[in-house]
Amino acid sequence: MIEIQNAGWYTTLQDLGRFGHQSLGVPISGAMDLNAFNWANALLNNDPNAACLEMTLRGATLKFHQATHIAITGAMMPALLNFNPVQMYEPIQINKGDVLQFSSTKEGCRTYLALLGGLQTETVLGSKSQYKGLTRQHQINKKSLIPFHEIPFRPKSAKIKKQLINYGDLKLEAFEGPEYQLLNTTSKNILKKKKFSISQNNNRMGYQLNEKIPQPLPQIWTAPTLPGVVQLTPDGTLIILMRDAQVTGGYPRILQLSDDALNLLAQKSTRDQIKFEITSLP
User: I need a surface site. Which of 5, 36, 220, 222 has the fewest CB within 10 A?
Assistant: First the structure.
């Protein structure tokens, strides 16, 4: 059992996501940075879909009531285990009664904590990912108790020497979306050459950008959307859909981010800059 002594700024339970229910309007959800999430579980030989804690900007303080092993990946978020610094990207032994305290991120904005065997919480529509209106809680609260199984760990001396992704990179790989060709040459050139910045309107549902496209497009018939879709609103605002985004929309879908680009964007926050690298599909 983990006791949440301090929940941090915004901490949630996430796995790979909720698939097969989009026809009912249920978002995919899941870890924002799937690259970091996958490495957290891999370091512990967990099932790839084992639920982890996703901590945003400022981490939680946790007390362990059972022995286990953990792994910390993602944004650089300094952590103290019983007031001693611990390393990221390697298995860490935890004893009963240990207290793990995270501070604020130094690079990136989302950090993942995996526990050996995963966190044993409720499963809703095949996923443990928290989502408001669907799961009992949409985030972790102070004084919460989260169960996990105490199982033996068979270490393989696995560790990663350095962060796998440069979270300071501006470039986001993107493909032309279904409505991309509706843009005129000027708007296309702006998309390809301009640096955009993330507005304060950013969360797990979507990121709005500050800079606008001067050629707004008319709304379309409601069409399917996925995480990573870049929508253009009638006033020229760009919205990049994230993991908790709606499954349909009426705004033109002018770009689609690659998986790696979506993971990188998940580690960016307000005022960070991005630049699209647009590739045409064959």
Answer: 222
Residue 44 to residues 62, 79, 96, 196: CA-CA distances in angstroms? 19, 18, 18, 38
- Alpha-carbon distance of 77 to 36, in angstroms, equals 13
Q: pLDDT tens-digit profile of 40-98?
A: 999 999 999 999 999 999 999 999 999 999 999 999 999 999 999 999 999 999 999 99
Instruction: Say which residues have a Cβ less than 8 Å from residue 188's Cβ, sequence separation at least 6.
Output: 180
Classify residue 155: in a domain, yes or no. no
Answer whether 230's CB lies under 8 Å from 222's CB. no
CA angle, corner 221, sides to 218 and 227, nearest 5?
Answer: 95
Instruction: Using DSSP bridges, classify how beta strands 171-176 and 273-279 pair: parallel, antiparallel or unpaired.
Output: parallel
- CATH code: domain of residue 264: 2.40.100.10
* Report field, pTM of the whole predicted structure over 0.85: yes
- Name the H helices within 112-266: 185-193, 259-265
Strand partners, 110: 56
**Which residues constitute the domain of residue 125?**
2-146
Q: What is the dihedral of CA 240, 244, 248, 252, to 10 degrees?
A: 0
Angstrom distance (rounded) from CA 114 to CA 46: 9
Dihedral sign, Cα of residue 132, residue 17, residue 237, residue 221: negative
Residue 58 lies in a domain: yes
Model confidence band, residue 217 (pLDDT cutoffs 50, 70, 90): confident
- 142 & 211 share domain: no
Containing 125, the helix (H) or strand (E) segment is: none
Question: Among candidates 125, 38, 47, 40, which has minimal Cα distance to 88?
Answer: 40
Residue of 134, 128, 126, 127 whose CA lies nearest to 25: 134
Q: Are 231 and 241 in contact (CB under 8 A)?
A: yes
